[in-house]
Amino acid sequence: MLLxxxxxxxxxWILSDQIRRAEYPHAVADIVDYGxxxxxxxIDLDGSGPLRPGTIRVRWSPAGxxxxxxxxxxxxxxxxxxxxGAGTQGDARxxxxxxxxxxxxxxxxxxxxxPVSGSERDYLLSGRLARLxxxxxxxxxxxxxxxxxxxxxLDGREGAAGVAELAGEFGLELTDFPLxxxxxxxxxxxxxxxxxxxxxxxxxxLLKVRVEAPDGSYVATATPSGDxxxxxxxxxxxxxxxxxxxxxxxxxxxxxxxxEVDARRFRAVLGDEEPSFSVxxxxxxxxxxxxxxxxxxxxELELSLDGSLRAGGAQVGGVVVLDGAxxxxxxxxxxxLAIRGQVRWDGGVLEFFPxxxxxxxxxxxxxxxxxxxxxxxACVQGAAAGPAVSLGPEGISADLSIRPDMLRLGASxxxxxSDVDVSVPELRLVLDxxxxxxxxxxxxxxxxxxxxxxxxxxxxQELSASVQFRPRERTPLVAGARTTGIRAGKEPALSGxxxxxxxxxxxxxxxxxxxxxxxxxxxxxxxxxxxxPTSGRGELRLDGREMSFGPGLASLEATSPWLAGAIQDFxxxxxxxxxxxxxxxxxxxxxxxxxLRDVAFVLGPVAVxxxxxxxxxxxxxxxxxDPGQAVGIGLMDVGVPLTDGQVLFGYxxxxxxxxxxxxxxxxxxxxxxxxxxxxxxxxxxxxxxDAQGLELGKLLDLLPVDGVSGTGLMSGRIPVxxxxxxVTVRDGRLAAAGPGALxxxxxxxxxxxxxxxxxxxxxxxxxxxxxxxxxxxxxxAGGELVAKLGVRGANPDFYDGYPVALNLxxxxxxxxxxxxxxxxxxxxDAVRERMLEFEAQGE
Length: 843
Prior knowledge:
55 strands; mainly beta
């Protein structure tokens, strides 16, 4: 009104003042033409700055002025800058022109400068806004830029509180529009409605958006969902913004990834202290996602919710398929996760509460590089009352209870490793990780676990263990384990209860972990070793403590029930050392040493005393002892009492003991066995003892006969038969190498020797000079030795040396003989040197 009534001289001054108050401080306005019904003004909002000046044509009529209304305002070529506060009312002294209602507003080629993607872009704006006689309005507009065009064709009416309500058609075309480092292209038409607080947009038919990113082209397509058209609405009320959307969205990536979301209704409310979300009857599908080598497919995913995530939680269910490397050093083949539960939003953190078992399956979960791996079938649940998994700005946390139905660890076929069956009733897993999945802490514990090596037929029973991983701490890994026993074959167990404590320390910061710990229980020992997480290779050394066995000391039954089932009356000292290693190819065979000192035992029918040795195993799985293992034995009863012996043997993969040589001292001479093999399981062998240089007098001293003595040397062969629990000497024969003497002069003759015939026998044997003497031996280990003596010769003082042939039978228990054999025993030098070397290594 002021412009229409002001004189020509005052019009420019009034107009410039009004614009400057609207925070265009450099604006300049001049009147080009002024009449009774029209005025034309030249306006430069930037005051000779970079913005383009334009013109404004204002028309009025007496009837319009009577209604306090301008008939027409045309703005042509004016440059505007969209900035915070620019063009708004500066104070209460006057509004920006025009101050009267306008019947029709027309804009032609206005240049609007807007900030876009960090820079300013110019847009051409043309359009028309007109009031209709019925109180409605018409709005037509087109905004055109270098890469985008938007047009609107709307009809409206004045709504509540004088706010215009608009509705009509729209069109949008983008061609390589720059946005956040990408170029966006799309073309669509549809309907749009606005009531002052709510903007509602409904694309018509297919909405396709192409985004050119540095890694390739992404294509997003929005289509109607069922009978409902694709639409979205934005409501802005009292500082809150509510977004409501529906439809089907499909996204394709350059790598072939495909994502589809079909939602009847999605709603997000922003502006509160925390945003809230809700979704009704939505489904999603994701296929072909490749993130750093991990391919993820989600063939099924259903979402439904009544209310906000904070209030009730969204029901979620579906299947996720994984194939690739979800984390460094881990590879998953044909992985499948079926999930069902609730999703909630709490304090900016997304939480998942599982319902029942979450089924997890994978054909193989393996270490990268073809090392150890296992198929997986498991049930996963939340371990506590809170959320099982949480995702927030700080990262990911999880507290899970995992019940595997099947695990079978094994090296890859290329590595040739053996399988390991693992049974875990339940595993508790607590994880705290960054958004990239890198663990900050990991705690795991389980009980009742069994680990079986099928090829070796060895199992760890009732294994309880815990692992604590803190990668940023000086001691990143702490582990502990306990088992009730180690079983080899069938019952009984190979070992008694064993407790394991193990720690890993990274002293250098990023080098191999140093392992240290101990075993307690059946096998007390120190543990030391190293592990390189990068290569997956490690080693562990076990240095056993000296263990003394016997009455009041350690018992073999508690240490190894399996050995106790085969060996009785075990006494002496034992000490074990083991060195084992592993890598991507699997568990290496390992090596070991066993020191035995002054050991006595009974193995089936064989009694052993004074055993000393250091046994060295080239392989523990399977057990292999190279030939040449030297054992010193004070005494061994194999039907005849063999003393002061040295045995050389080996133990091969076929499970048989191969004795190369065994030399014994007996009766002043030597007894040597020919090479033979025997299986500890079958205990069946035929052994021949070759006796040389035995002194007759010492042989007779071993017999339980008082007053007998003799001279001469004996040689021969003694066959020994081992069958299960029985060791038998059958038809052993020793013969004198030449003439000698045999004397029997008892202080107290046995009963029956007082008769006339036997008295003559005593006289003949008082100083009998034999020409030939043969001794036949038969007996059973642990039983009696039967000696049959046949001699031919004469006594010079008996019937003038008349030739006599005598056959004598003598028998007796061997316990006395065995005790006598240990009195002069000494450890062989070769065995003693090995024992001293073993002890020196432990210092």
